[in-house]
Amino acid sequence: xxxxxxxxxxLSEIIDGGYVYIDKTQYIHQLINEGKYFFLSRPRRFGxxxxxxxxxxxxxxxxxxxxxxxxEENWNxxxxxxxxxxxxxxxxxxxxxxxxxxxxxxxEQASQEELVLExxxxxxxxxxxxxxxxxxxxxxxxxxxxxxDKPIIDYLEKEKRPTAYEHRDLxxxxxxxxxxxxxxxxxxxxxxxxxxxxxxxxxxLNNLTDITLDRPYAGxxxxxxxxxxxxxxxxxxxxxxxxxxxxxxxxxxVKAWYNGYNWDGKTKVYNPFSILSLFRNGDFRxxxxxxxxxxxxxxxxxxxxxxxxxxxxxxxxxFDSYTLDxxxxxxxxxxxxxxxxxxxxxxxxxxxxxxxxxxxxxxFRYLIGGFRHGHPADSGPLVGHLARAFQKNxxxxxxxxxxxxxKDIPSHLFIANSEKYYHSLVHLTFRYLxxxxxSEVHTNSGRMDAVVQTEEYIHILEFKLNKSAQEGLNQIxxxxxxxxxxxxxxxxxxxGINFDSEKKxxxxxxxxxx
Length: 514
Prior knowledge:
- The chain is an alpha/beta fold.
- The chain has helices spanning 11-16, 25-34, 48-59, 93-96, 98-112, 122-137, 150-153, 161-180, 225-231, 233-243, 247-258, 272-281, 295-304, 329-335, 357-372, 379-391, 395-403, 411-416, 418-433, 469-478; strands at 37-41, 83-87, 141-146, 185-192, 209-210, 261-262, 268-269, 312-314, 340-344, 350-353, 438-444, 447-453, 457-465, 491-500, 505-513.
- Helices cover 42% and strands 16% of the residues.
- Helix 16 (379-391) runs antiparallel to helix 17 (395-403) and helix 16 packs across helix 19 (418-433).
């Protein structure tokens, strides 16, 4: 049984160390032969760094690393190109500043090739490095840029944004060198998490092809279902034995937890980090989400009262690049991996949704914590208690738990935005509840309804703000919400709840068997 390459980003370490390697070389071969300048956006921990290192080893002619892989018999290993491989994640710009970091990176790349650069600025050093490498080797240079956007996205918080603007301008100047160096360049691939405006960063690279949403490369990163079952067959059998369930049921569970990432409206892939962590740990929990808390995104959602995260319908412009002055939350959530394409319509619009249970559950936990001004760790237990109360038909406990959602919100903030806080927290809580038991939430003329089903009960809840619980029950009857559930064979309970915005608490509730 081969080892699991968790956190390993170099092909040589994977091959020489006896780790599992999912063969993506056919994708790479197709990309290399299709054109010259490419850009690819994918969320963190999705294998971008390993992809770039694999391309590097191909161009350097390290054939031994590709024994048994698709490309071994489909590449001319006698032709080798010099490679400039820049990784902003390891450049040290936080400690020394971006200008010094870029200068040092150019000097280090030159030193590896036994070159001494005469230029004194990072831009001119970059230009000189490319030209002299071409001259030294007699073959054009391959440029690989990993996490190009990290010096910007590390500073997106409002108070740090001036640094993001500064870094954006520096990078724009840096990348402008590439166009002038075109006669010396064989291939270019730039990767990152986000897709900033071409005007902002790549204004001179008007021939840069963005393959982020291209169907031929939808499976180039992440694991497809076929790859999962082929490369991890032994690990899957081990989990089947451990969980004492049928293989089909085990695969369905793995899919529900970790599959669902989609960039072309058709191809779904697994998060590599989560899958590898699942097989290492042997239990189902949140792995990828825990490696990078989306504090900045949660703060933006809270600031804009953006809480209906699921089910957004957008057109193509939502996937286009954005600027620091116009950061659309749907674009940010999509590009960072918290939302993905669920469906493409015939009108070329797209429905965005959480990719899987891991992201859905974790995102709700953080959003509820953010809107409550509480700790995310408290959200899961609170919703778990709510699920148990519904299972027991304990309406008093249900009301107590819903009431507790609002207690930590500072009064002055709540008074100014009482209706927004009220709707956001009720909506988020009942959507999160759907992780535990079936829950459906929708809005109706600005008022929030919830239907919660357990094995024995169907609860139809109507929430009112500054009115009365009786009005809630009246609406349930008048609109005949119970009609679609009459033949379910369960006890149907109607619950009216009224929230008083001045008291910041539920002041009235009633229940009735329907």
